[in-house]
């Protein structure tokens, strides 16, 4: 009988101590006391420091000397039928002496991927947007801030300038009032699949020795669409030298909608056969402005397109007048 009474007393004491320690049971935290000594918890969000949202950028570094990663679709025939494409050989351009360059004109063009002729640029198995975007954002090639190629930009800077902080309002958690809204901010990172345009810079050169008037692409840049104060702008985050891109482009296959047996690589598609459609947006002039930035074309988009066609026709007439018939 004494043993039973002792056991009951022991359990009663343990229960009182548990209520004293935990307040609401094991694992519960005591309620903070307010100034008047009551145990009511303060309202959420009052007196708490506001946390600023930051764009988290991982350390990427540079990988200029890393081996290029080839990408080909599997074939079921002997590979010797397309050995040049499979080996990723860059076909060199003919050597041109400065003394043989009798004429040169620098032109900037925009390649719109939404045009029908440029649909191969969005091939899901190997989109050129992803290839060129990773050149800059993964540090695979040297990226430059402008088309002068005089200042290198790091992958971290590219991610920083292409990202933005988005602020939205939503109902406060735990509140039943629909009008009780709080601001929530989060970073939004730009993705390669949002690229719809590219800009290329090329030189139209008349080679006196070989008797050719041909274009040579100098650089290429992806275009990021941005909304600033309700206006849409095309921003170029970085530029790439085409000669730096060619070794990797020669190892990347492009879709041919006419014949699967005649697959080309991106270097042949862009630099040699020029199987894309584009329109001129700038030429080398004294003011160094785009056509649509000139005062006479700011409010006339149709006039800027007609001016671009005029420049294209002038190049054709110049080549035509070089020969006698």
List keywords for this structure.
alpha+beta; 23% strand; 24% helix; two-stranded antiparallel sheet; single chain; 6-stranded antiparallel sheet; globular; 325 residues; 7 helices
Topology:
Layout: H1 2-22, H2 83-87, E1 101-112, H3 128-137, E2 143-144, E3 152-153, H4 155-162, E4 164-171, E5 181-188, E6 197-207, E7 212-228, E8 231-235, E9 240-241, H5 242-249, E10 253-254, E11 264-265, H6 266-272, E12 279-283, H7 301-320
Antiparallel strand pairs: 1-6, 1-12, 2-3, 4-5, 6-7, 7-8, 7-9, 10-11
What does this structure look like?
This protein has 325 residues and is α+β, with helices and mostly antiparallel strands. The chain has a domain at 102-320. The chain is built from seven helices and twelve strands. The chain has helices at residues 2-22, 83-87, 128-137, 155-162, 242-249, 266-272, 301-320, and strands at 101-112, 143-144, 152-153, 164-171, 181-188, 197-207, 212-228, 231-235, 240-241, 253-254, 264-265, 279-283. Strands 1, 6, 7, 8, 9 and 12 form a six-stranded antiparallel β-sheet that branches. A hairpin with a 2-residue loop joins β7 and β8 (231-235). The longest helix has 21 residues, at 2-22. The termini are far apart.
**Mind describing the biggest β-sheet?**
6 strands, antiparallel
Report the count of strand segments. Answer: 12
Q: Please mark out the parts with pLDDT under 50 across 5 or more consecutive residues, or reply none.
A: 1-39, 41-45
Helix proportion: 10-25%
Helix and strand content put the structural class at alpha+beta
Percentage of residues in DSSP E strands: 15-25%
Total number of helices: 7
Mean pLDDT: 79
**How far is it from the N-terminal to the C-terminal residue, by CA?**
130 Å
| N-to-C series of helices and strands | HHEHEEHEEEEEEHEEHEH
State the shape: globular
| Rg measurement, Å | 32 Å
């Amino acid at each position: 009988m004494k043993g039973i009474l002792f056991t009951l007393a022991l359990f009663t004491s343990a229960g009182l101590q548990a209520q004293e320690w935990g307040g609401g049971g094991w694992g519960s935290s005591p309620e903070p006391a307010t100034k008047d000594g009551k145990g009511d918890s303060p309202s959420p969000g009052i007196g708490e420091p506001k946390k600023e949202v930051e764009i988290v950028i991982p350390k990427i570094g540079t990988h200029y000397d890393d081996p290029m990663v080839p990408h080909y679709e599997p074939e079921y025939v002997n590979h010797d039928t397309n050995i040049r494409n499979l080996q990723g050989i860059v076909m060199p351009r003919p050597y041109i002496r400065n003394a043989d360059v009798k004429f040169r004109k620098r032109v900037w063009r925009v390649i719109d991927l939404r045009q029908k002729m440029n649909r191969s640029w969005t091939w899901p198995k190997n989109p050129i947007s992803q290839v060129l975007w990773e050149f800059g954002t993964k540090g695979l090639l040297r990226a430059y801030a402008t088309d002068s190629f005089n200042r290198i930009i790091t992958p971290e800077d590219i991610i920083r300038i292409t990202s933005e902080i988005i602020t939205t309002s939503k109902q406060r958690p735990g509140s039943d009032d629909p009008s009780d809204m709080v601001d929530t901010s989060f970073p939004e990172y730009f993705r390669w699949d949002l690229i719809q345009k590219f800009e290329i810079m090329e030189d139209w050169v008349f080679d006196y020795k070989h008797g050719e008037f041909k274009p040579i692409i100098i650089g290429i840049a992806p275009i990021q669409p941005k909304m600033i104060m309700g206006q849409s702008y095309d921003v170029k985050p970085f530029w790439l030298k085409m000669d730096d891109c060619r070794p990797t482009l020669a190892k990347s296959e492009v879709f041919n909608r006419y014949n699967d047996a005649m697959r080309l690589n991106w270097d042949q598609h862009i630099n040699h056969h020029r199987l894309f459609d584009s329109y001129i947006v700038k030429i080398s002039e004294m003011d160094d402005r785009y056509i649509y930035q000139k005062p006479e074309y700011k409010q006339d988009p149709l006039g800027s397109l007609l001016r671009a066609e005029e420049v294209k026709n002038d190049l054709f007439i110049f080549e035509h007048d070089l020969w006698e018939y």
